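Intended use. Records like the one below are meant for learning the mapping from a protein sequence to its folded structure. Do not use them to infer anything beyond what is encoded.
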Amino acid sequence: MSNEADQEKLLARWLSGDLSDADRQLLAQENGLDDLRFALDDLEGWKVPELDVKAGLKDLKSRLDQQTAPKQTKQIFFQPWLRVAASIILIAAVAYIFNSMLTSGPTVIATGFGETMSHVLPDGSVVNLDANSSISYSAKNWEDSRELDLDGRALFTVQKGESFTVETDEGSVTVLGTIFDVKQREEGLLSVDCYEGLVRVDVETQEQLLKAGEGLMAMNGQITRKPVTGTGPQWLSLKSTFTNVALTEVVATLEDFYGLDITIPAAKANEQFAGELDYSNLDTALQTLSVVFELNFTRTGDNIVFE
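Structure written out for the chain above:
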């Protein structure tokens, strides 16, 4: 036979019963039929075990039951009064934890740029916060210690009682029932104005007493006393009256209140400004300075340039 392909064709025809006599003789000559008969005889000896359908189904069901059967849980039943007691204990525990979280930390009151706020302290004392300012104190311990920290500027109207202390980075102010204004923004600078009562100011190792109508400014430990007029600071009405004050200081007022970065010509920095500046409206305040000092200004976001 010429090749394996021809042999495969002959074997296929033999298995299907289409083999001719000539092909049969060809296979016989090449012992192909003997190989086929040996393979067929071997196949007849093979036995496939009988399938027990019922036993198979029973085994499958047993496996599925083992996989899906829920685990037995033990239930414990409490008496009704025990359930009520447990609920009361749980509520009390949650209330205690919640109350501790509220009273353990300091109370912080803060204002943003261009914002003022009035806040009543636990004893009825009132704090009027200027823009970009904050106070912090312990409400829980207020009756034992009337003390708070100030960053920025605030007017205090204090109820009579034990000593009342305002702490700042540059010094402390202690009073016994009075109205006073404290400003501490720049490093090394502290300003205190007393409108009612008596104020004690401690700056480094120096102690100063201020009565109504008196104030002071401490710059890096150097104290300058000054007169105070009126019944309260002008910033409460968003106005300031300046008496021959350098333009740089006037501009600083706007920067503090609105959170701006204002640039002015160096030649104009020390020129004096006398008059009232209403900064309740930023555009009006800028126009006022522009006219008085004969300058033009441009604004890009929070940056203002006079030239």
